[in-house]
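Note to self: keep these together.
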Amino acid sequence: MAVVAVNRLDELDPGDELLLESWTGSVGNDTGPTPLPNLTEATTTPYLRPMYDPNLYLMRFICEVVLSLPIAILGIIGNLLAFVVYCNHKHKLTTTVLLQALAICDTLVLISSILLRCLRYVGWAAYQEIYHYVFLALFPMVYFFRLADTWLTVLLTIDRFIAVCYPLHAQRLCTMRRTYILIAVLLLCTFAFSLPRFFEYTIHESTDFKITPLVFDKNYVFSYRIALFFLAAYLTPMLLLIVLNTRLVCTLRRANAYRAVAMQHISNANKREMLEMGNKISRSITTIVVTVVVVCILCNVVAMAVHVIYSLQICFREELTYLEPIRRYLANVSNLMITINCGSNFIIYCMCSRNFRAVLKRTFQCGGEDSLCPSASNVRKGSSTKRSSNTDTTSTNSIYLTQRMSLKNPLKVHLENGDVGL
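Structure:
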């Protein structure tokens, strides 16, 4: 089986779709696309070569440089700030650990997006000279980052689903040790799933790409690139997110309705205050998770549509050639939506959580009790430790009261229990 070399970087078009599929062929002839090939033929490439379209190139420049580049830069800054804030959070919860891992994955996706797509279309000549090395290093890793990012969102939803829908079992099921183990297993599995991508391209004569015979294997393309990737990256996680999020929202609505009735039967003002404080913390965390999941689903819909169109083109190559321009335009929108998804979480945290805004302010304000300034931290260390202890006691009392109420009341109580199981 022959190996096809890509003679110019312009023929590699990772900006056209999320999957970063490659294009090959002669650069000089832009009269139109070649037919979709028969994957059993070793002398042809498995993809259409791009037709020169000035509108497409303009759209790509707008999506990748004008919009995606600043969003990615601001998103990286926001994700790093969010990671620092959750590191300085007084209560070490499983949800905050998962949000930290999500912030790291989002940052890696955004860095890959800048290096693989944004800088490529800026017109920086020096970068074009080394781009083939960057592509070979990041092409397989971007699949790993994206897959890990998606499944961390699923794990975050499951964690919150247990805490809200099964509050009495949350402390047993959602432990810190189990969360770290799940994150490690998830990263290991997603990396193993992405391993075949490392064998799809190689360097050709130090300046060009070379597509390996693996990409021409019909079984590999249909089973791994189309079917398995669609199941692992889109269908399965999206279905889980939709089902769990729907259950979560329904449970929250029932909990809010019951909470109004339950509070009327608590005569002690201190108990009411403790329970209400725990509920506010839990509602804030749940709102963050629900919003992150909704944004993730919306931003991945276009990417899933691009993958379906690409799969249909491979399966019905002669009948669906007219879908090629649609796929290429949608692919640029898809890349932009993925960048927005990975760069918007910091804004969601700030909008949905008053506690996050307070910790953010204390963390980066000199003189604050959680400030990063060493002098301020040393001066207020004793006070901060005492206050943290009091807060932990309050949270424990709130959990205890809520659990007792749920056991005594015949109704099925779904009150959110502050920090339980988080």
